[in-house]
């Protein structure tokens, strides 16, 4: 993570040059002195536009209500206080437009220099796109049961995320309730999400709960659990995704994976229509760890498709010096992958080859030579050293 932050003006570097002289979004207390820091908290019910010259600190829940709009310009720095209740949540009917650029990304990170995984909650978007289940099925977020997602509009638009960093996310309330880096709940295809960097987060890097949003150019580094997680009837495409475990990284989870995919929520609704049916194009899983056969210090599966999910995965590559229990596993006690699942993967791990679990159940899996996986030049804007 330090490699990224040393490559451009960061929150810490920016604050070094700042003397806090005023508070208030427009400097009304002293109009001759520009505001350089401000807090970001509470409900947004109309249109709020941040200032790229101001460093914002999240001190509690930031909720974009139905009809509300949060505009975040390129180069904006947002820091978050430590805690589960510090997050940004876009409710159904709300919109976020975080439009960074390669030269001036938007950085959302911890408010301290020595932060660790799970410092703050991350970004959650609730849309109106369908979930697995009868038409109009909705779900509720773990944050509050009143915050619904799902519905009947696959083209629902929750805004745009471009060139955004989400660092040190995944704060936990208890053992069963934990944020991800980016949580997409029933988000529709009208939402644009491209060029996202999620380093050092607890739980999953990104998780799709149903919906039909497409995500392109995603880099996840040192996610504590799964790099890419799909569930509850997700039907979109993830294109150009790169997941890394760096040297020395140790997951605290019992079953971390590159991809984990369920057709329905927790495998409890196998008869629901609209099970997950998604596509992943150009994926690399890069394990830079020391080889270790202990289940406690290796990735459990590179790819796990189960519980009625159907996946089409092309040009996948796993490489590095680390270890994986199973290369691909299409089985589960609550039901295996749906018929028609196809996976093309190249295994370039330098350790003993990972295996297919139950090869007789993996007819659609092709372990081939020559897949290039995800390109790395598309992540030059992050400054990450590949």
Rg calculated over all Cα atoms: 20 Å
Structural class, from secondary structure content?
Answer: mainly beta
Count every beta strand, where a strand is a DSSP E run of 2 or more residues.
Answer: 28
Estimate the global geometry from the Cα principal axes.
Answer: globular
Determine the strand fraction and express it as a percent band. 35-45%
N-to-C span: 12 Å
Low-pLDDT sequence parts: 1-28
Helix content: under 10%
* Largest sheet properties: 24 strands, parallel
How many DSSP H or I helices?
A: 2
Order of helices and strands: HHEEEEEEEEEEEEEEEEEEEEEEEEEEEE
Kindly report the average pLDDT value: 90
Model description:
With 386 residues, the protein is mainly beta. It has helices at 2-5, 11-16, and strands at 37-44, 47-49, 55-64, 69-72, 77-80, 88-90, 95-99, 106-110, 123-126, 138-140, 148-150, 159-166, 172-174, 177-178, 182-185, 192-199, 206-209, 214-221, 228-231, 237-245, 257-262, 277-287, 299-306, 310-320, 324-329, 342-349, 355-357, 365-367. The radius of gyration is 20 Å and the shape is globular. The two termini are 12 Å apart.
Task: Write a concise synopsis of the structure shown.
The chain has helices at 2-5, 11-16, and strands spanning 37-44, 47-49, 55-64, 69-72, 77-80, 88-90, 95-99, 106-110, 123-126, 138-140, 148-150, 159-166, 172-174, 177-178, 182-185, 192-199, 206-209, 214-221, 228-231, 237-245, 257-262, 277-287, 299-306, 310-320, 324-329, 342-349, 355-357, 365-367.
Defining traits:
386 residues, 2 helices, 24-stranded parallel sheet, two-stranded antiparallel sheet, mainly beta
